[in-house]
Protein 1
Amino acid sequence: MPCVKPDGTLEPMAQAIIRVLRTPHTAEEICESLRLPLYRVRSTVRELVEARLVAEADGQFSLTGAGAERVRQQS
Amino acid sequence: MDAGTPGTSIPSLPRLGQSAPAFQAETTHGTIRLADFAGSWLILFSHPADFTPVCTTEIVAFAQIAPELRQRNVELLGLSIDSTYSHIAWVRAIEQHFKATIPFPIIADLNKEIATLYGMIMPGESKTETSRCVFVIDPNGILRAMIYYPLTTGRNTDEILRLIDALQATDKHSVATPANWRPGDKVILPPPKTIEGAAERLKAGYECADWFFCKIELPKDG
């Protein structure tokens, strides 16, 4: 899972995205917020969902408990 | 055994107007699926190998048109039968020696899965390298254009920009584009399909050489 490094820390883009997801966003809103191409957001968010740091509901992405804890650790 | 030799199966190739074959790939930007590009145009292109001179000129040329493509809602995605580590080293070498940043991902297709799926390998030229292929995929995932160049000949990225402009003009205005068309040039109206339509076309005030050959100017924004 490229967005999560072998030591469990997140790649810079994944870190930026979970910081944005302190409030729920759609993929398009994440793109606008971070000025990233949509394909990059979709692929990274998919991996964050697989890592159970982010959850999706009705097109909105938000942090899971583990994701919120990860943001706290980064702050 | 070469392709074309009796007993050799020739893989099916993608077809214009059909859905582009789906894939998931390891790239220099992480794991990417074709579906991740939904809503954008995509130029999927292959090169024979990293750290080769013609490919280096091409990847730099693609990087140079990337901003113009982005303005047109077009993403770029490269591919070769090399590892991600090779791609990363090549991209870094290009930054160092050619002062060019490669802003798009490059697929590491070591198992030739995507190269085979898209018919990028021409066994008559090389069984281990992809030819210089370009696949233009529209926002709905439909394959709209293909270009194949041999190993010896670098592609013309100006033509690729022109092709994108032509395809987008076609979609926006339901017209066709003549040979060597450029944005701002007149476009071609689809020919009428009935006798009545042919007669009406000639009375409609278009610039017509004959009933089947009529041109119009596009609105200035188009």
Protein 2
Amino acid sequence: MIDKTRALGDFGISEDVLDEMLKEFIVQADGFAADIEKSALNNDFEAATRAAHSLKGVSGNLRLDTCYKTAVSLDASVKAHDGPACKRALAELRKNIEDIRISIVPLRGI
Amino acid sequence: MLPNKVLIIDDESLIRKSTALLLKKIDVNSVVAENGAQGLLLAASERPDLIFFDLKMPGLDGFEVLSRLKADKDLAHIPVVVFTADDFELSSIERLEVAGLCRKPFHPQDFFHLISGLITENAKVDGGNGALND
């Protein structure tokens, strides 16, 4: 589960509005994960870095702390061209995305 | 003092939305652009009191946006703040003619202090004739 309290307080929005933003985040994060995986497999670490950079900015701004930490690791691994570390961070990212998905009530449309 | 209107230029929709929400919380209106070209058009038509933009954007990137803003005599005075999520960008940003730097993720209080300080400073330079909220 994720802690929504800080995001709700910081943005001054209802949980419904936050959930809509989280749904959008899930779609984007799934896309970033796929892009990073594909780019890293093709040794295109520049493209992977761009996606990791975007993921870091968006997750951080939404106060998704665990996901942000994973994005920082992912960003570092792609910049270092460290394939195994990138693979581990991607697996962690997918767990983080799943945690966000189950935090959204009701679960629909994603 | 706070700005009446802030322009946010960022290709990430959730960065635009989250930044606009923070501004709305302190009663500041925002207009958003999803790329540099759209941002320049909105800067000219909306005449914001402050502009935030990301450096890394597809198409017209933040460096080009800044260069064009500074070359336009009607827009050059508007303070601009760069969004960044990367330490390695800092050396590039230090060379730019920007009023401030906003590191993502940003804490709301730091964000509010930054924009309030920038607008106050700009009002002093303009002789206090800018359109500002109390």
